[in-house]
Known about the structure:
Two copies of one chain form a homodimer. Chain A has helices spanning 9-38, 45-51, 56-62, 66-89, 95-109, 113-120, 128-155, 163-180, 189-202. Chain A is mostly helical. Chains A and B meet through helix 8 and helix 9 of A and helix 8 and helix 9 of B. Chain A binds a DNA duplex (30 and 30 nucleotides) through residues 9, 12, 16, 20, 23, 44-46, 54-58, 60-61, 65-66.
Amino acid sequence: MGSTARQSPWRKAEERERERGAKREAVLHAAVQFFNERGFHATSLDDVATSLNVTKPTIYHYFANKDEILFECVRLGLESIRQAAETVESRGGSGLERLTALMRDYAVIMTKDFGMCVTRTADHELSIEGRAKFRALKREIDLIVRRVVEVGMADGSIGHGNARMMTFTLTGALNWIARWYDPDGSGTPEEVADACVATLVNGLAPRASRKKKA
Amino acid sequence: MGSTARQSPWRKAEERERERGAKREAVLHAAVQFFNERGFHATSLDDVATSLNVTKPTIYHYFANKDEILFECVRLGLESIRQAAETVESRGGSGLERLTALMRDYAVIMTKDFGMCVTRTADHELSIEGRAKFRALKREIDLIVRRVVEVGMADGSIGHGNARMMTFTLTGALNWIARWYDPDGSGTPEEVADACVATLVNGLAPRASRKKKA
DNA sequence: ACATCTGTATACTGACAAGTATAGGACTTA
DNA sequence: TAAGTCCTATACTTGTCAGTATACAGATGT
Lengths: 214, 214
């Protein structure tokens, strides 16, 4: 190694493209941290550019506009969740077991930059088209989770109820992690995830003996 | 009635003050709806003014600046929650019973304009001073809820665990209601609240028989 | 009648930040 | 070494609002 003998221009082009991708990613990483900390509107692209030792036009060389940057951040977060959800859905175990695993992965993602961004970004911050795609992706995830809940209700591992409402309640608790989790605070992402999931799975009563409300 | 005989200027001043208060409230009500729908930054005070058939300087006659308006909206929401929490805390019943009642009231508030505003407003949208008060109020509420959780753990009506994390998980699910509840959709605030609370209290398993994790 | 206070409008300033026009340096390929 | 392409910077335009200076109308109190 070290010789880097190159004959074909192909390899070169590929390499250049890879570098371009790396720079795009760097922008996204810098941007998402600003967005999470200060919010989308309060973050200027000059800030982002400066933090990367470049200027604004450079960023515009990689992205069409500010909205695209936000959307990509959100999309990355949502894709992580969807992937985790899909993986878990199609694996073995009872509905409850699958749902528990899904929630745990979901919770961990919520402690990461791009996951946080999903929760912290409101619909109206995205462009019209971005908003539609955002909603579609969220809905897709919601349906996967709901399906797992329904599997659990069918196989008896999860109590009966309104699956839609139950899904919203569970994912709500998980989404909210992104609003209070502090990486510098106590608890690793995994510990936090386990604690949350345990509360959601077990409910509040100490062990058995729940009456009230059929 | 109808004669409106007035002799003392006292009554007059008082009345004027009441009217001033009513107008302030009207501004807050108009503003909070814009904030919830479009977000704080995307709402211009011209929008708010126009919707009230006045102009911007009129609004500045009642509020020092835009930040104050947002803060008042958030404060109203947080005060509702705190009041509900305090009322419930100091009443009878087991910890679990009290917590259940608290969560129900909390959930209902989250479906209302000012409650929604609390969840939809991020720290960084408030002024520095507003942010501090915001956090203080939220912390106060958090501590009340946590105390009720601990009462429940002590009296045996709630299973043992990390009260802090449990509180975050529960209130997270409730807070998130403000992000998905649709007043025009199916389900009254009370129905939604009951469903969420039921999920949180009961957990997922169908009835008894929970093992795993002490 | 006169001085004042309250509420409102018209018309402006000032700041900030998104996005762009333009140029030039560096690398690629021939 | 020349043509073309990619990447980046300087310096600008532009739109949008928050916030304000000023004026005026009507009610209040003397």
